[in-house]
Amino acid sequence: MASIVAARRGRILVVDDQRANVEMLSELLRSRGYLVDGAYDGESALLKVAEMKPDLVICDIRMPGIDGYELTQRLRGDPATELLPVVLVTSLEDRDGHDERIKGIESGADDFLTKPVRYAELFARVRSLLRVKVLQDEVRRQATELREWNERLEERVKEQVTAIDRLAKMKRFFSPPVADAIIAGGVEMLEPHRREITAVFLDLRGFTAFTDRADPDRVMDLLTDYHQAMGNLVERYGGTLEHFAGDGVMIFFNDPIPVERSAVKAVRMAMDLQQAFVPIAQAWERRGHDVTLGVGIAQGEATLGVIGFEQRWEYAAIGAVPNLAARLCGQASGGEILIDAATCANVGDAVEAEAVGPLQLRGFTQPIRAFRVKGMK
Q1: What is the mean pLDDT of the chain?
Q2: CA triple 294-297-303, angle to 5 deg
Q3: 294 dihedral zone (left: phi>0; alpha: psi -120 to 50; beta)
Q4: At 37, which CATH number?
Q5: Whether residue 78 is found in the same domain as residue 132
Q6: Which residues lie below 8 Å from residue 182, measured CB to CB, with a gap of 6+?
């Protein structure tokens, strides 16, 4: 129904060098509810088309200057009017009229009327072509909407690609759940702040001697095996990987996402890390290299946040706690896990530990109470 109403109210341009013909056709069409304008030559018709944007053009073939054929060809050559319906009017019905129709089809005409114009035929052809024009306009509208949707989709894809890129960068520092939370919660989570954390430091015993004797390829092979095994477990336990420098790796828990009983989780991860390193140590022992893993764990408040420069940022923990974890790691023998008093108090009955201190550690003026983890209770 809507398309029929739109067709009845269509805009029609009548073109003829005979004013009487223009006025006659215009009045007939206006009586049927159409919006009609007229032009008396091809040049003015092109201007009218650009001005009124008609839905249909009815044009006499034989006109001085730009005739009906040329007018149709020009309309077809313009992307804005290439689909505009054109009806050519011819006064011939014999062989010459047949030739004119063929030439009109070649020019791009959609239909023909023969003078004298039969009213019923005129109205039928107008209704038919205006319905086609309504459908063409709808297709164009939908094409425009589709193009706009595609543009919006491209923008969304770009935003998602940016988010994925940010997420990939975050995953260099955090476990996937933590990285997802940072992306969802915004960068404010990375602003400098104070929080209690459990810091875990890993270091290889015998690594320096190994690097002195082994060729570079073997050194990189060992580090690859080590980081692969450690990285998988750190990700599984949801720890935040602060940094790794050669054989030294720092991980902490309870930031930027709070972790319940972070000390227990840290000790459990450290025990699994030691277990995971056993086959690596055995494999290198068979090659004549004695390499083992030491672990230090400390708990307390630290300053956390992003540090670095534009091309390289790291999420770091600053303060006595990460330093203490590193010093305890330095005191640990191969296969040992040393924890400070705060960690020991927080693991409670979950962990079996024995005192090994107090230890005099570099950078700490007072002796440090330390404990060796023997196992989980």
Answers
A1: 86
A2: 130
A3: beta
A4: 3.40.50.2300
A5: yes
A6: 170, 174, 189, 190, 256
With both helix axes pointing from N to C terminus, report the angle between 42-52 and 68-77 in degrees, rounded to the nearest 10. Answer: 40
- What is the pTM assigned to this prediction? 0.58
Evaluate if residue 252 carries a pLDDT over 80: yes
d(CA 42, CA 46): 6
The verdict on 139 and 14 lying in the same domain is yes
The count of structural domains within the chain is 2
In this structure, what CATH number is given to the domain that contains residue 287? 3.30.70.1230
Residues 180-230 pLDDT 10s: 666 666 667 778 899 999 999 999 999 888 888 888 888 898 888 888 888
What's the one-letter identity of residue 116? P
Identify whether residues 185 and 137 lie together within a single domain: no
Residues in the chain: 377
Report the SS3 class of residue 167: helix
Domain boundary among 144, 167, 185: 144
β 312-318/193-205 pair status:
unpaired
Q: How would DSSP label each residue in 262-290?
A: HHHHHHHHHHHHHHHHHHHHHHHHHTT--
Residue 168 lies in a domain: no
Contact 57, 33 (CB under 8 A): no
Task: Provide the residue range defining the domain that includes 105.
Answer: 2-144
Strands 312-318 and 337-340: unpaired
Any domain includes 285: yes
Q: Record the tokens describing residue 112, joined without a space.
A: 């023909």
Tokens of 305: 């946040």
Radius of gyration of the chain (CA): 42
Same domain, 347 and 215: yes
Q: What pairs with residue 11 in β-bridges?
A: 35
